[in-house]
Design brief:
Elements: H1 2-7, E1 13-14, E2 25-31, E3 34-39, E4 43-44, E5 48-53, H2 59-72, E6 77-81, H3 86-99, H4 106-111, E7 112-116, H5 121-125, H6 127-141, E8 145-149, H7 162-175, E9 179-185, H8 202-206, E10 209-217, H9 221-227, E11 234-243, E12 247-248, E13 253-257, E14 263-268, H10 269-277
Parallel strand pairs: 5-9, 5-10, 6-7, 6-8, 8-9
Antiparallel strand pairs: 1-4, 2-3, 2-12, 10-11, 11-13, 13-14
Helix pairs in contact: 2-3
């Protein structure tokens, strides 16, 4: 423990650029012999985080906001796109920046390094080639953050390899002291608010933290009461399934995607229910 402790990084926050999210992670201080919860103010630095959910729940929007936020602060982000070719991701990132009120869009061009695994098969099918490319980008641009959208695309049609692929990428991120966000896709048969995704629980068992995003159509009076929204409306939900690096909120929260395409984390269902009961 003493030897490992010498190399242990300090627990620090990384603001995400997602309204309501940074308040959901905590650290603690001891006062009078008792632990007191203190907001961390962001995700934990050096954490490898899995963001999972069915389609159209805001996963890509969330990681794009994170990348834009870090880039706007002058920090370098390696963004590995596995689903959409790089020019379209670049367009989306700039749109996200404008929605976030960033006037100098050039900081996005300067500080986000795109690796196009969507267009180049060798990057998707040869994990070593991909990792060598990412290592070069991290060294060359002195990047501290990595986003993969989506990690599921790296073991598509060979989900039996999911645990091996994710473990190698996780170890790589730790070696290079990256704060990393992985998007993973759910299959239609997966429970929406569980950490399970394509490849089973392989991703969530390995990473430091999992965020789960889902959606639900309000169709009953009970739903209307529970979620505080009228029948016929679609609600989106957000939950932190676990984080081994620090404390975190354990409630399920309402989530919103604004008309400008930004993700916002809202009140917990517990808070919504309290208001309904008043």
């Amino acid at each position: 423990m003493r030897e490992a402790g010498k190399e242990a990084p300090k627990l620090e926050e990384v603001p995400t650029g997602v309204e309501g999210l940074d308040d959901l992670f905590f650290t603690s201080v001891v006062e009078g012999g008792k632990a007191k919860r203190v907001p961390l103010g962001g995700i934990p630095k050096y954490a490898v985080i899995n963001i999972t959910g069915v389609s159209d729940t805001g996963k890509s929007l969330l990681v794009e906001q994170f990348a834009v936020k870090r880039a706007s602060e002058g920090e370098r982000v390696v963004f590995i796109t596995v689903e959409s070719p790089a020019p379209f991701v670049a367009m989306a990132l700039k749109e996200r920046a404008r929605a976030m009120g960033i006037e100098d869009i050039s900081v996005i061009d300067e500080n986000i390094v795109l690796i196009d695994a969507a267009s180049y098969t060798v990057l998707r099918e040869s994990l070593q080639t991909l990792l060598d490319t990412v290592a070069y980008a991290i060294k060359t641009y002195r990047a501290d953050y990595t986003v993969i959208d989506s990690i599921t695309g790296l073991y598509e049609a060979r989900e039996m390899m999911a645990r091996s692929v994710v473990r190698q990428i996780f170890n790589f991120m730790k070696k290079w002291y990256q704060t990393a966000l992985f998007v993973s896709q759910k299959r239609s048969g997966h429970e929406e608010l569980s950490a399970e995704a394509a490849g089973g629980y392989a991703v969530s068992h390995i990473v430091d933290c999992t965020m789960v995003m889902s959606k639900k159509l309000i169709i009953t009076r009970y739903d209307e009461s529970l979620y505080g929204r009228p029948i016929g409306e679609m609600v989106r939900l957000f939950r932190i399934d676990g984080c081994r690096m620090c404390g975190h909120d354990t409630d399920t929260h309402l989530m919103e995607i604004t008309d400008l395409g930004l993700v916002k984390i809202g009140p917990s269902l517990k808070e919504v229910r309290k208001k309904e009961d008043r």
